[in-house]
Amino acid sequence: MTRMNGLVGVVVSSLAVVAVVIVGWFFFVSPQRSKADRLGTEVGAAKSELLSDEQLISLAKRKNTFGSAKAAERALPDEAKVSEILRQLTGFAAESRTELDNIVPGTPLQLGNAQAVPIALTFKGRYFGLQKLLKLLRQSATVSGGEIIAKGRLYTVDGITFTGAQAPAGQAGSSGGTSADIQATITLNAFVYQAAPPVASSTDTTTATAAPPTG
Amino acid sequence: MDAVNLLPVDYRERKHKRTSAADNLSGPQTIRIGGAVVGLFVVLLGGLFYYEHKQVHDRQKELASNRAQIATVQPQVDAIRTARAAISGRLAVARSLTGTRMNWDRALNDFARIIPTNSFLTSIQMTAPVTAATQAAAATPTATATTSADGTTPEPATPAPAPTVSTLTLGGTAPNTPGVALVMDRLSLLPWLSDVTLTTATRLDNGSNNFGLTATVSEAH
């Protein structure tokens, strides 16, 4: 009887230990451990995301991303904003001491992700005034060092046709140093950033008459 | 001769029995020891559980804190990403346009310096690979940039094959035919112009010549 009781005690004790270990490990410790591991992974991912976000913000502050974005939108807005073009061209004319007698926007044309708004300008002024006007148009928006530097819209000039008039014919063109006024039609393009293809409309064409010369 | 067992009678039966460690343990004693071991494991597992539970709690707190920080910066991050997207799309377009844009002010300055005083230009047209004029010309071959706006819908997804160089078309008047030749020679001196070609030279009644020239503009201009 004594011997049987001892064996039973050992067996019962062993079973109890095993049961406690199994139940404790698999029902209490292991789930917590798995949960902790999963949370650890999530914490790692969150930390990594936070670090990446902070780096992005820091880089954006250093590189003035918002300023660049504004400049980019100034150069290539989402809408034609013809009124803005008129104001800019008038400003350029005043700065270059020239006259823009006629400004005729044409029908927009799709160019990949941009829409070109052709504009015909009738110019009157000195030859070097025209040169200054073209320089202002070019410097309105440029790309430098991988970023858009823009004071205004991006313009490209397709052509200049001298129509002559007030100046003697021999001086109306490009011969150097003339002080006579010349007349020219400048064909240029302003651009609208637009990925979707536009619907061309002939009613877009309007004519504007520029302000009197500012001297 | 029979063997004689000299052991006392009480010990004779025990000798035949096999003994083990358990033989020396009593049931209650074994249960007590087992209970102690179980208790030890319970404490050990409880400690482990507490440790892991604390880990979970700490990580949950850390995760919540990180998520809160992410949520705080998220509007800024979204704005930056939007700004970046706006920049990258526009930058590609601007690069393409400015890369082929002619420096007209420099061109006019150069023309003023090199063209003889008795000759003058009446028109200057630039055909750049990506200008609207090129597109318009592709859509309506006979139209110019301003006259091609005929109300028809252009094909947006099929840009015209871009030429590799930009072409400058010049029209003007010279006092005579040698004057046209002189204009051509002078234009050839410009480092950013090459292949100056005469397209037309028409003698007028007064002896002067209307001429048309084409030239290739280098990419560096």
Q: How would you describe what is shown here?
A:
- The complex is a heterodimer of chains A (215) and B (221).
- Chain A has two domains: 1-63; 76-209, Alpha-Beta Plaits (2-Layer Sandwich).
- The termini of chain A are far apart.
- Chain A has four helices and eight strands.
- Chain A has 215 residues and is α+β, with helices and mostly antiparallel strands.
- In chain A, strands 1, 2, 3, 6, 7 and 8 form a six-stranded antiparallel beta sheet that branches.
- Chain B has two domains: 25-99; 104-146 and 163-217, Alpha-Beta Plaits (2-Layer Sandwich), CATH 3.30.70.
- In chain B, 51% of the residues lie in helices and 17% in strands.
- Chain B has helices at 9-16, 27-99, 104-114, 132-139, 177-188, and strands at 120-127, 166-174, 193-203, 209-217.
- A four-stranded antiparallel beta sheet of chain B has the order 1-2-4-3.
- The radius of gyration of chain B is 50 Å and the shape is rod-shaped.
- The model of chain B is unreliable at 130-163 (pLDDT under 50).
- Classes of the chains: A alpha+beta (215), B alpha+beta (221).
- The interface between A and B is large, with 103 and 104 residues.
